[in-house]
Amino acid sequence: MSGSGASDHSRRFCVLSWDQVQRLDSILGEAIPIHGRGNFPTLSVQPRQIVQVVRARLEERGVCVKDVRLNGSAASHVLHQDTGLGYKDLDLIFGVSLKDDQAFRLVKDVVLDSLLDFLPAGVSKERITALTLKEAYVQKLVKVCNDTDRWSLISLSNNTGKNVELKFVDSLRRQFEFSVDSFQICLDSLLLFDRCSETPMSESFHPTVIGESVYGDFKEAMEHLCQRTIATRTPEEIRGGGLLKYCHLLVRGFRPSSEADMKQMQRYIVCILVKLQHNRFSGYKININPSVKILSMASC
């Protein structure tokens, strides 16, 4: 890698401060209820526990986990507590290889099997199948497999909307919408410290934890977060256009850095949204009434 390339790469990363590591440790240790449907009991799950269990089970099955990261609004909260955004979902990313359908199935089976470890004492596990656990505890199950993206998402149910989302990523072309939600925190060093150290963490003795901004410039993204600025790169690549996130940021007091930026961003967002709806309507037209003429969207 050239000197310039190495410098550009290093700008993506930052070592977390002691205060930030403490906030991260607190989030990973918080017990989150996973609510069961029907007669299934509520599970009490600490994020650090489910990460350790799922990772160990994957590696037992021969799946190499490159790293595990905290992503999205929870990562932003760790880095800057007073964002005004708060966080609800706990988005955990496992870096894995998903080369075929069998790998996708294995990941799903491992997660569902791991839930058995969190059932309350006294619950008989012998007759509980993976399908039963899926129906009882999974809020959302997503699989994406195309030329640029290979990932799956398993979102565990929480009636208050604070879902634990386990995302297994082989490749993902676009990992953020705006700079303020582009942060990822690598959990490996902290989880290793949990397993290996008999001495509690302190300001003078704690693991080095690395944060990354997939926006490309950690310092700039942090400035946007602290100053409540809406910014992005190549907005035309944002999946779905980012309208909901953009509106959420506006409601929370975030603003584009200038009127020109605001107009350009809104144009991209609206244009992408209109194109998506146009494509959906075109598909509907072809299936239902081929004689209906659909206008071209080339002007966007």
TrEMBL record:
Keywords: Cytoplasm, Nucleus, Transferase. One of its GO terms (cellular component) is nucleus. Its EC number is 2.7.7.19. It is found in: Cytoplasm; Nucleus. Pfam families: NTP_transf_7 (PF07984). SMART domains: DUF1693 (SM01153). It catalyses: RNA(n) + ATP = RNA(n)-3'-adenine ribonucleotide + diphosphate. One of its GO terms (molecular function) is RNA binding. It is an enzyme of class 2 (transferase). GO terms for biological process: mRNA stabilization. The keyword Cytoplasm applies. InterPro entries: TET5. Belongs to the TENT family. This is Terminal nucleotidyltransferase 5B. The lineage of its organism: Eukaryota, Metazoa, Chordata, Craniata, Vertebrata.
